[in-house]
Design brief:
0% strand; 2 helices; mainly alpha
Length: 53
């Protein structure tokens, strides 16, 4: 691969990485919010437990 493409590919990869980090932070804040609305302990049926494995 010509050396010209390497900086371009790195720039695209870092932009994608920043977008992924922002998306993960957004989703994590949503998870934290929803967890705050749940009781401390959630009981599952055997079938629900099996689906989580």
């Amino acid at each position: 691969m010509p050396r010209f493409f390497h900086p371009l590919i790195m720039m695209l990869a870092s932009a994608t990485h920043r977008e992924l980090v922002a998306e993960i932070q957004y989703l994590q804040s949503g998870i934290d919010f929803l967890r705050s609305k749940l009781p401390k302990r959630v009981t599952l049926t055997e079938r629900e437990r099996h689906n989580w494995e």
